[in-house]
Amino acid sequence: MFACFLTFRWALTPFCWILLGVFVVGFMQQGLAQPLPFEARNPDNNLQRLVRWDMLNLSVDQRQKLDSLDKDWKDTYVQVYPQIIRDREELRHLINQPNSDDNRIMLLQNRIHQNEERLRNEATQTFLSKRKLLRPDQMGRFRQMMIQD
Fold first, then answer.
1. What region, left, alpha or beta, does residue 59 occupy, with left being phi > 0 and alpha being psi -120 to 50 degrees?
2. 99 exposed, middle or buried (CB, 10 Å; 0-12, 13-18, 19+)?
């Protein structure tokens, strides 16, 4: 069956083109259909799970600032992640359409990538902002938590 790919002809047979097309579309759908793992949906989680903020004896003011940072992150996530899902659905639909607009497909793929990158950057910035809230004595415990993993 795969012998057609091993031929040394310059032109592929129609069967090979069909087989190649099915393979490429199947591969793209498999990659696009998968939801982001939790760590990617909440990139802050990779760093966040290492730190038990409640074990750092935070002051009331620190706790409020931490909660505010968490709220801002969640607001961003709730705004951006549904757009990623919608764009993936549209992309999946367009890829299955034989006459779909290539430019639209590229636009959607780029927008998905940019939004995922935005979430990763926001999550990292949130984590770094939380870290800046710590006093020197809390930083020692924080470092220990980071090393333990």
1. beta
2. exposed
- Model confidence, pTM: 0.65
What residue spans of 7-59 are helical by DSSP H? 14-33, 38-41, 44-48
- pLDDT tens digits for range 50-61: 678 888 889 999
Tokens 């966040």 found at: 48
Per residue in 37-76, is it b (16+ CB within 10 Å) or e — as a string?
Answer: eeeeebbbebbbeebebeebebeeebeebbeebeeebeeb
Name the token pair of 114. Answer: 């940019």
The one-letter amino acid at 76: T
How far apart CA 115 and CA 43 sit, in angstroms, is 12
DSSP H helical segments within 34-101, as ranges? Answer: 38-41, 44-48, 60-96
C-beta pairs of 7-11 under 8 Å, 24+ apart in sequence: none
Q: What would the two tokens of residue 135 be?
A: 């006093």
Question: How wide is the angle at C-alpha 68 spanned by C-alphas 64 and 70, nearest 5°?
Answer: 115
Query: Which pLDDT tens digit goes with each residue over 82-105?
Result: 999 999 999 999 999 989 999 999
